[in-house]
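so my prof wants the structure for this chain in the tokens format not the other one, which i didnt know existed until like an hour ago. anyway here's the sequence
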Amino acid sequence: MHIISLDPGFGDCKVALFTDISQKPEYFKHINVVAHLGKDQSTDVNADVVELDGEFYMIGLPASQATASQVMPINDYESLKKVTPLILKRYLQQYDDITTIVVSLSLAFQKFAGDYKDFLIKTLGLDGKSLFLVPQGVGCKIALDKVGFNIEDPSFKIPCKNYLGVDIGFNTIDVIKVIDGVLIKKNIQGYSDMGVTQILGLLREDLKDMGCKEELSDAKIKVFLSQGSAVVRGVQYDLRTKITQRVKEYVEVIHEFLEKNYSEDLNSIDFLVLFGGGANLVGNNKEVWEKYYSPQFVKIPVTPEFYNAIGGLYFPSLQN
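here's what i got, hopefully its the right format
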């Protein structure tokens, strides 16, 4: 028996698995790129290739090598909806004993939650009773309650009952407020087009300034962002210095966003807790962040990008 929790994301796909809820979860991630290969597939279906309704798709890093016309855009709710069943099927064919499925969805898209769930059920022929949707940010709160600030060492817990939780994703930012350990539902909010994706357009311009004339897909730019450099038509482009600059600029954007929308909340809580892949960017740029907030005030889990996926594993047991 497996419980699988999928946090599809617009940048990376985070996956967590339980064989037993009393044991430590397995978790990992891959770049969220999906390429449509069409009907004629010369290679066998394998760990990176899935078939759905006679069409073949490649999932993950190998898909970033596909042509720009094959790579499926993942930049809004509708495009995320289209690729989610393909990603999920990739793991359903790898683990044949999954009995419960949890998928996270940004608070920014909660009005589409019913449509999202129905689409997954219809496309993959799932049992609706075995499929759960967990709002992003809410999953982070559940994970923090269960495993503290270190998934590998749940004993590493910091008393944290009054906080503003900010889940910085690739496309979205999800914000939650917790008072005395209780999620304040009227204070949860999601924002689209505020995530790390803002950096992609800037890096595309940086590449042009470096002499790259090719129009690259977002998937290829994601590779630059995650690896620091990449090869285009035999030419190696090193963007590490530019990425450092752009990330620092983005950290400033996050600060301005929080002060504009949550200044009063920041004055009333004990901690600002950052989750998501964007939290790593903040953590790696303390010289920028600490201009505004003390290190005692800002808390970041050891692996913040996995907290929605980890929280999703516990979500079904909390619905009784």
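also thought this was worth mentioning. DSSP finds nine helices and 16 strands in the chain.
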